[in-house]
Amino acid sequence: ALEKHPSYPSQFISGLESHIKDRSQFKNCLLPCTPARTEGSRTLVHSYCESLIKLLLGIKILQDLVKKLMQMLSVSPVPIQHDIITSLPEILEDSQQNEVARELSCLLKQGRRLTVPILDALSRLDLDAELLAEVRQCAMTIVPSVKLEDLPVVVKFILHNVKAADAVEVISDLRKSLDLSSCVLPLQMLGSQRKLKSQAQASSSSMSQITTSQNCVKVLFDVIKLAVRFQKDVSEAWIKAIENSTSVSDHKVLDLIVLLLIHSTNSKNRKQTEKVLRSKIRLGCMPEQLVQNAFQNHSMVIKDFFPSILSLAQTFLHSAHPAVVSFGSCMYKQAFAAFDSYCQQEVVCALVTHICSGNETELDISLDVLTDLVILHTSLLMRYATFVKTILDSMQKLNPCQIRKLFYILSTLAFSQRQEGSYIQDDMHMVIRKWLSSSVPNHKQMGIIGSVTMMGSVALKSLLPYQRKNYPSEPCNVLSLQLSTLLDLVGFCCEQTPEILALYYDELANLIEKQKGNLDLHLSVFSCSSFLFPVKSLYNLDEDETQGAIAINLLPLVSQSEPGRVTDEMSNPRKRVVSPICLSPCFRLLRLYTGEQNNGNLEEIDALLGCPLYLTDLEVEGKLDSLSKQEREFLCSLLFYALNWFREVVNAFCQQQDAEMKGKVLTRLQNITELQNVLGKCLAATPGYVPPPATFDSEAPEGVPSINAGGPVRKKYGKEIFAAERETGNPLAQLQSYRPYFRELDLEVFSVLHCGLLTRSVLDTEMHTEASEVVQLGPAELCFLLDDMCWKLEHVLTPGSTRRVPFLKEKGNKDIGFSHLCQRSPKEVAVCVVKLLKPLCNHMENMHNYFQVIIPNQGVVDESRLDIQEYQLMSSCYRQLLQTFCLLFAWNGFSQHENSNLLRSALQVLADRLKPGETEFLPLEELISESFQYLLNFQQSIPSFQCAFILTQLLMAISEKPVTGWKREKMGNVSVGLDRNPREPEGTQHKNEPGNFRLHATGSANVYLEHTDNILKAIEEISSVGIPELINCAKDGCSSTYPTLSRQTFPVFFRVMMAQLESSVKSIPAGKPSDSSEKLLKWNIAVRNFHILINLVKYGRLFVEAFLKHAMPLLDHSFKKHRDDVQSLLKTLQLSTRQLHHMCGHSKIHQDLGLTNHVPLLKKSLEQFVYRVKAMLAFNHCQEAFWVGILKNRDLQVSTAVLHGH
């Protein structure tokens, strides 16, 4: 009707313009209109109608009004602008959409108040790809500054309009623009607002702001979650964007939350997400602070991903990488602190499951997590104490260190809150009484450990205010009185068994050492009674002896403890005689108790440092055969007790600053090395002897230790150190299997390495100063300390196996001799060694100077004035110093971000030896370079092949932080040139250690071939240069180009070259017609090398299989272009396959089982080779050139003669 009007459209438009000039009328035109209803009217289906303007804008002829509306946007109020923009998608024709979209994108940049309607309108327009990219980029520019409540809309628009081709780029830009730190109220402001309790309105306002912020972030991640779920490209692009970020500082909380979101939402990407997360953790891009910020500031968002968090944490605890394990434990702790009670219960149940899983690593980490939780969130964890308490049913699965941790957790829960913890106290008392009353020694050990840990919790000074508060009517320590019955039971058990008493002493000593300064030692538990410190009876001191003239009467004490011997003292009920087993444990407790009471001052007991020991005649050379077996065993026991006493004395006084006491400590170290030499001779003459126990918190080792005089001793109670660690002729090597029977040296003992020349007094028989002498740390003492340090570092810094251990098998054997060490974290041990690097460098430089003098002329040892024993000892020290450096720098904990400063400190010590005072501000890469060069300087003085191999390993450990081109090239050169070590003098060669020598030769050859640029060329050079040099040299000589290649190591080199050859040809990709020449040349070199090395049936088969799989496709395409080269290649290989065929015949004729096992598979491969060549010729239409003959079965000698005849 409107179109038929004669004045349409001019009069209509002018009338409309005049109508809407009135503001109220224009507003009414924009409002939706509702038709009026009459009583008789029919019910309308739609009671709501569009506004007049929308209805009129739907008329095609009136579309010129669009321009007018766009002009009106600049002058209209915000609500009207909102309505106009929202209406545009329904008004515009297709031809108008692009133009309006550009104007809207410009408007989007100008202001932030219309962000939501503009993006809503743009998302409903059909735009071309180029314009859509422009609009999306425009939206991207406003992400950093947009209002928080509008941010989800902007992100939704960007993600909704992303295309597969540019998804990674778009997501990368979005990831950089999104900053969640601006989405939360800073914690400092939040803390200050919480303090304003009186200002209720301000507090309410701030909490409302926080809630709004959290809700907006929640909506934002809901938007991302929808995009990840329904847009495959977005999910993969986001993972790729995070993966492509290399800088540690570029990673933020958003990355962690998005990875958790993808892992939780998209099951197809879970493995990829987990892989990226692991990689980022290893590289230090996901530090614990980032995890803490994510959980604390965005717990509402992350809580939705709790199943994924739990799953990832459980998986990460299985990892062999310490950074990944640490990340998993951090996730557990943060989830417990940030989430609700349901999640907290699930976390505790998961940790209990880990503890009962049978995996040693999981068990230790889970107990550490529970320990942290009980310290930080005692009241929260108290709710779930019932779950933690169930671990008591599986106590036999735990080793002593783990039992201590568990009882610390339970004791803290039991005694921190009286009413809630009373039932835990009852259960702990019941379990401990049951164990102490048991006749099984292992159960009694567990009871002692548990009871002492409980006593420690009661004696904590931090509990005293709680005890006074809860027991106001009783001033004494009621909790300690409650333990009096338990203490009596402990005393009864200790009197029955000396080993249990010794364990009780050790556990009390460990408690005092661990809780240094936090225990109330005035409690009855620590009363200095005769039960705890029976000094006179234990040390067998006479009553009338003064402190200045005491002596440890060890010989009578050991004699009284011999089986079947009854003396007057033992029959006297008033005089208590204690087993010598308790001698060292009691002294350890005494010195720690005294040090705790006197702030580390040991003057009260310093007489025990220099007092003599009453022993027997130790001149045993030539006398052992005349002694009976019982007398030899008695002598061995006496020496073990004396050595363990000296070890504890050194532990006690090693940190005293008085020069006289330091000198006495060095003297005791000399006594230890001298007694060890005597003990080694006695043990060699006393087969089957079992020493008295020295560690009491685990079951006795199985089997009888023995002296291994002919070679290295495999470490039975843990992982095996490098085989070359133990040399023949070294007294320490002969005693390695007896390590569980020696008292453990503390890490503080290694502070003795700082000592130089010291003066000490020499006393006469009247204990008066007779003279003074200068003492210093000699090679024997240095070797003793370094040997122990290497064992400790290898035990704690080398990652253990993560395989599951059945519970029915013995637990804890691997920790025998490392009880104190296991109570420290690997980082604490690494920090201790880094502090010792300066004296270690001094000692290594001294070794370098010594061997520089001994080996002056091109590696020729001057034997005319050489002390062979001193040479061996110095060589052992050199090797152990290198081993110490290698174990430290190979520690994988340095890859963790929180240990980067520690690594820098260690490298700075080495670099400072070359550039004193110039290394403080050097970048890490330069520190690595200087450290590498410093260590490389020692190659000129390397005295043995074993030292050369360890130095190679050390340089590799340094160069891998991180690997760069120059380091790879240097390592390749070092592995060749480093082993140009001198010929060792007569009597020092390791002829009895072929296993160790072959092991190091294998490592050296592998290092060289792995770090060379061209493996095939390197193998060819060794085969064509090194082996002929070896053939032409003397019997005990070696190749001049490759010094490690000798007749002794030739089989090792051969095996390594074959393995590397087979591995390298597999890396040659399958052939294509376009790139056949270069690959054909590589295969020619490989086959030529194979023909030279063809003597190993196993690797021969592997090479033939690799040739069939990788080379034959190349020959199919190359035959027509390079016929002569292909024929030459096949003829050379045919000679090798013929030789392999003769090997098969040789194994059959001589019935060699080792070879016969490989024959069937080898013959199958040889047959496949024949038919595959036939197929290649048929493919190239040359099948008439193929001819098959029959080879006769011959042995190697006959076949060789026949081949030479041809």
TrEMBL record:
Q: Which gene encodes it?
A: FANCD2
Asked if the keyword Nucleus belongs to this entry, the reply reads: yes
**Protein name (Swiss-Prot/TrEMBL):** FA complementation group D2
Keyword field contains Nucleus: yes
Q: Which protein family is named in the record?
A: Belongs to the Fanconi anemia protein FANCD2 family.
Q: Where in the cell is it found?
A: Nucleus
What GO MF terms are annotated?
Answer: DNA polymerase binding
Q: Which UniProt keywords apply?
A: Isopeptide bond, Nucleus, Ubl conjugation
Instruction: Give any single GO term for biological process.
Output: mitotic intra-S DNA damage checkpoint signaling
Task: Locate the compositionally biased regions of type Basic and acidic residues.
Answer: 980-993
Domain of life of the source: Eukaryota
